[in-house]
Amino acid sequence: TAAMGVALGLSFAAHAEMMIGFSQIGSESGWRTSETASIKAEAERRGIDLKFSDAQQKQENQIKAVRSFIAQGVDGILLAPVVETGWDQVLKEAKDAGIPVVLVDRGVDASEDLYLTKVASDFVVEGALAAAWLAAETNGVCDVVELQGTVGSSAANDRKEGFESVVSNFPAINIIRSQSGDFTRSGGKEVMESFLKAENGGANICAVYAHNDDMALGAVQAIKEAGLNPGEDMLIVSIDAVPDIFKAMADGDTNATIELNPHLGGPSFDAIKAAKAGEEVPKWIKANGPLYLPDTAAEEYKMRSK
Ligand code: AHR
């Protein structure tokens, strides 16, 4: 064992508990970067040999990575699917090879028997929560612009659906513009600039609903550059709860965020281990978080930015 090796002054690694492949989307947002770091750290803590592959936002790279994990004979695969569709073939290949696949964070539009489980938040609930907060805050009267996430991703599709399902109950809440900012800060800024131009310099806009914090932070910059006060002239609600958004909330620049838990490695590895031991694993292991407001933002920022 490694302990014996150390005692004898020899250096050899302990046999890894499991070899797991992880196909990650990329590093488009602060949340994604923390999720990657958290999953890598959890693998290390457990002595798991993690094969990491960064797809740089491309589904074709993810498909290649999954095939390479299958060829290496891994014990399991973590897949964070960039978009929802187009996974059936490669998931079938993993299943035929007897390798369990855990969907981490995002979902797919494929038959449930092609993967072991999904470890993820309910994005529809997140969207609904954002809309419920906004409806209460504006007494049900508001013209909203929406910054959507990556086109075709479950995170964007479901956050849109959840938000719309609640605002459809309020006849005076209207989504006046909606466009993708690709979950990036620069995308959020660019799209917000075009919204401001199209909407009378921003005078027509009551609130911004951003599918993630990074796009909200980009929008904050655009709103400031247009000479307006974000958080005051326009309400801003977003999703993720990254440290920077707490700083923005504490400064009065944004108004609410919904937490997306980035620590998805533990439950994903547990699920693979359980499946290997022949135990039943539920099809969806949910990881939903609460809504945070400016009153606790300074304290949260202090704790989270350490
Ligand atoms: O799939 C989750 C989303 O992906 C996060 O909300 C966003 O920040 C990330 O890029």
Structure explained in plain terms:
The chain is α/β, with parallel strands linked by helices and 306 residues long. It has eleven helices and twelve strands. It starts with a helix and ends with a helix. Alpha-L-arabinofuranose binds at residues 28-29, 31-32, 105-106, 155, 183, 212, 214, 239-240, 260.
Shape: elongated
Percent helix: 40-55%
**Secondary structure: number of strands:** 12
Mean pLDDT: 95
Biggest sheet architecture: 6 strands, parallel
Distance between the termini: 35 Å
Number of helices: 11
Layout of secondary structure:
Blueprint: H1 2-7, E1 19-24, H2 30-45, E2 49-54, H3 59-72, E3 76-79, H4 88-96, E4 101-104, E5 117-120, H5 123-137, E6 142-148, H6 154-167, E7 173-180, H7 185-198, E8 207-210, H8 213-225, E9 235-240, H9 243-250, E10 256-260, H10 265-276, E11 284-286, E12 288-292, H11 297-304
Parallel strand pairs: 1-2, 1-3, 3-4, 4-5, 5-11, 6-7, 6-8, 8-9, 9-10
Antiparallel strand pairs: 10-12
Helix pairs in contact: 5-6, 7-8, 9-11
The structure holds alpha-L-arabinofuranose.
Alpha-L-arabinofuranose (AHR) binds at residues 28-29, 31-32, 105-106, 155, 183, 212, 214, 239-240, 260.
